[in-house]
Structure prediction request, 752 residues.
Amino acid sequence: MSKLKLMTTYLRPAYLLALTAALFSVPASAQEHIHFDSTTHVFRIDTPGETYAFGVNAQSEIQTLYWGSPLAAADPLPTPAAYRSLSGMEESSNITPYEYRAWGGLNFTEPAVKITFPDGNRDLVLHYVSHKIDGDKLTITTKDISRDVFVDLIYTVAPATGVIGRNSVITNKTNAKLTIEQAASATWNLPHGTDYQLSYLSGRWAAEWQLTQEPIKDGTTVLESRRGSTGQQNNPWFAITRANTSGPHPEFPTNEEVGQVWFGALAWSGSWRINVERNQVHDIHVTGGYNPFDFAYPLAPGASLSTPVFYAGYSSHGIGEASRIFHRFQNTQILPQKPTPKLRPVIYNSWEATEMAVDYPGQAALAEKAARIGVERFIMDDGWFGQRKDDHAGLGDWYVNKQKFPDGLKPLIDKVHALNMDFGLWVEPEMVNPNSDLYRAHPDWVLNMTGRPRSEGRNQLMLNLARKDVRAYVFNFLDKILTDNDIAFLKWDYNRQWSEPGWPELGPDSDKQKTVYVEYIRNLYSILAELRAKHPKVEIQSCSSGGGRVDLGILGLTDEVWPSDNTNPFDRLSIQDGFTYAYTPQVMTAWVTDSATHAPGLPSTAYRFLVSMQGGLGVGSNLNHWTDDDFATAKDLIAAYKTIRQTVQQGSLYRLISPRDGSEHSATESVSTDLHQAVLFTFLHTTSLNYPFPRVYLKGLDPAKQYHVTPIYGTLKKDTPETASGSYWMNHGVDPDLTGDFKAAAFKFEAE
Ligand code: DGJ
Prediction:
């Protein structure tokens, strides 16, 4: 035996040991979450809270195998096998739960992709070709059985929350142009069952975020926007719970804290559609992406279309936990300042006080009063530009109105800074009034169809942001405003929806006009991204007549949203409740205003503050009408808010008592991530028959820690201890001392 060989043999165990140690001593965060078993052809995504599995069957089709609570690594999963046909009317390919279904063959289920080729062929059947795992990203390449159309299915996983992002990229490698008529991001398949319930959010202007929960029956429920933007009518979010009649705990229906929940949301701010379908064998498919209504995307040889990301997650602890998972995911993975977004400042907004009648003296007077109560950001709303007297004129002309601000914006901005606040400004960049210099100069810049009426919404038309010249105009004016002025915040508004969405510049024969649905939104996103890169300190709010543009796409580029123009404090309770099912309180701006509720008179200043303190606190009242008492209450509550805002905005939210469905009471609790602080908000609509406010049981505290309770506003029943364990507050509960109409109280629990 040579010396060298001897040495190798001798060294091998030590070398292997070191290598093994290097491979297996990786920190938890660097562990692999995506696996492929090359023997069974099964992919698994494993996170602490969930397992998602799918595989390639003998026909090279990709089908879902499991989505639910975590399985052990060695647990057997069924080998992927196409379902057996039920009859000639229900052949296998129509009932197999495909991960991404093309329209072709015997498929009558909602397809994710549908294509027309120039020769008239419209059949597409996708088969697995290859895959690549790159950390927390998996790309599976599929291809049509005969034509060179490739579809990449992309999966990303956020291990801490288990939220999986999916989208597709469709590439034309044939040598002729084809047209994509339908392009969804993904299909999510749930286990068989007949006891599923769908939760979704719908509404209208000033009544957004209404939660509907209904059984899923055979057939399809369509959630969608055909309006060019996200919309107030449906939000691109869903949650599916089980009634649990056939589950392990039939006595407990799924609720805030109990039961399985599958949930998801689309990251897209244009027309979208989510189909929730229960098929002939009681499988549930959720397919979402671009809305196929009026959709056609021609793809030249070599070109690709990528679809928006459809995120989804799973909770085995009720819909409350589903929301908390999604809130954490948005704060740490989606928002532009991820993973630790800055806390929202306390703002003042001029809209409800002055509407478009803004000028230096009026705004300066409001700013002085706002500063006195502890406001940190002063925002001047609509009315400062062009010939803007009312909503008939001015949009598009982004120069300062000289009658209102003879010396420009600088004096007001300086005044606001001198008062120790930063300055925010309202803009509505995508719109133009026909009565504007911009429209007179460029009537061709709006969405329109040649020779057809140009329907106005709020007396305005939509600029076609898909056009290069329009994109350049919009970026340049915003860039100039931000370069010329010391501005910390833009309120980006959007107050109408699309009509006559033509793009005649492309020519009457162009088959590309319908790509406006995609290209417009891409340009919107690219303007926001470029502005943020060039002005990194500027924060942006997405507003669309209230909550018309709230989705995970826009939230990747904006710091907060305006949930609704309805600032009536009682209505706001259910609006905020619905909002938090899908989106994080970190982005939920909430103003205290003078909007009266249904009862005679205005609820107290404290009531109105406590409602708004559950999100990013703002004030929108006309401060010129406030009494000394109002100022004193506001000052105290704003100071208190600053001690709890991190918990409210970034902690774990528990919806303890729902304000929905005519409830007389409601309560929310937020717990800080380190479990050191909890904040309880309680609201009473009306005391009836002298019944006391229901006892409130806190959640999410550390049972072993001692928590000291102090009132933020209001009192607890006299015999309440000042300090007790987390266990006590959660099991014994507390009794807020609330009687009467429109009463509110809030309490802070702090660990000793
Ligand atoms: C609609 C917004 O939702 C309001 O807050 C306000 O900014 C107006 N537009 C201004 O026109």
About this structure: Residues 77 and 291 are 34 Å apart (CA to CA).
